[in-house]
């Protein structure tokens, strides 16, 4: 292949990648946030296939999760759904813990809730959200109303792979925050190589066999490293082109 066409391909690849959207959703508010502590902000978003949705655990203090559910059962984990596990932030930490999922099917709404029960179920208090809610169909308001009348909130864990959206790694949890995993997540959440459940923070499992405490070094660079993945690939391709030369 001629270098000029190779470079052309690189440009096409870069433009195509740049078109994938990113969406940021805050997990938890603070006591003085309009709407209070128990919410996702925003609680609804439009995210075409390929969109990287970053959940930023920004409610401080907070102890929240992002757990996939269904419109019919807002506060119960969806079979085969994604689940971040709980992330506890007791005091301000930099960077904030984040978890990213990538949208794989934008044709069906993706509903989620926070499964924390203390001091009372956050889901029932309104901590629910939806992605790609269809106009004229089930609304976020209806979902929240359904959650408010739920009798209980399920704690079961599924893992990284969800229905219509999946994560490729456990949440990035800096030192100062704690990641609690349930007993079953270790069985179903197999992070791809390079995935780490605790980047400098600590991971605590609810069950003895699922424990995987981490004492990794705190690193502000980790979220950025994730974002730079594509750049690294591009650089690699560029280096390859140079060698062809
Ligand atoms: C959807 O989210 C937007 C913010 O992005 C908000 O303004 C709007 O009120 C939300 N819709 C509902 C029905 O809550
Ligand atoms: C962009 O989205 C497509 C799916 O629509 C996906 O295959 C591709 O990997 C995404 N690119 C990046 C850089 O995330
Ligand atoms: C945070 O939530 C986890 C899971 O419910 C629980 O084990 C832990 O005790 C909680 N910590 C605090 C300080 O609320
Ligand atoms: C997004 O991906 C799903 C699943 O592959 C597919 O059914 C749907 O048509 C895609 N959406 C668009 C807008 O292409
Ligand atoms: Cu919560």
Describe the fold and architecture:
It is a single chain. It is built from four helices and 13 strands. The protein has a five-stranded mixed beta sheet with strand order 2-1-4-8-11, with no helix packed on it. The protein has a four-stranded mixed beta sheet with strand order 3-10-9-6, covered by helices on one side. A four-stranded mixed beta sheet has the order 5-7-12-13, with no helix packed on it. It folds into two domains: 1-20 and 227-245; 22-225, Immunoglobulin-like (Sandwich). Residues 183-201 and 205-236 have low confidence and may be disordered. α1 (3-19) runs antiparallel to α4. α3 links the parallel β12 and β13 (202-205). 38% of the residues are buried. The radius of gyration is 19 Å and the shape is globular. The chain is of the alpha+beta class and 245 residues long. It has helices at 3-19, 140-148, 185-188, 221-244, and strands at 22-27, 40-41, 44-45, 52-56, 62-64, 67-69, 86-89, 98-103, 110-113, 128-131, 165-166, 177-181, 202-205. The termini are close together. The protein binds 2-acetamido-2-deoxy-beta-D-glucopyranose (4 copies) and copper (II) ion. The site of copper (II) ion has 7 residues, from loops. This is Extracellular serine-rich protein. It comes from Mycena maculata. Residues 1-18 form the signal peptide. Residues 196-216 are annotated as: Disordered. InterPro entries: Cupredoxin, Ser-rich/MCO-related.
